[in-house]
Design goal:
Keywords: Membrane, Transmembrane, Transmembrane helix. The chain has 75 residues and is an all-alpha fold. It has 3 helices and no strands. Helices cover 81% and strands 0% of the residues. It starts with a helix and ends in a 6-residue tail after the last helix.
Length: 75
């Protein structure tokens, strides 16, 4: 479940990046993909590196909600 949530986070970052990224849409998507690729392993380690697996899933779920709320913001 944590792996799926981390993937959803990366997907939301990529989808939301044209709204808050650099000027052109293509550059914003590339920027969002770089952020998603950088944060995916970190979320993966947090999800499976905690002593309590539920705590890791909750943390990654909160990150997903934060990334999804980034879709609501528009310039």
């Amino acid at each position: 479940m944590s792996l799926v949530l981390a993937w959803i986070f990366a997907h939301f970052v990529t989808l939301g990046s044209p709204h808050w990224g650099p000027g052109t849409r293509h550059d914003a998507v590339i920027f969002g993909q770089m952020i998603a690729i950088g944060l995916f392993p970190i979320l993966f380690l947090i999800a499976f590196g905690t002593k309590n697996p539920v705590r890791g899933a909750v943390f990654v779920g909160i990150a997903c909600i934060a990334a999804a709320s980034g879709l609501l913001f528009d310039r």
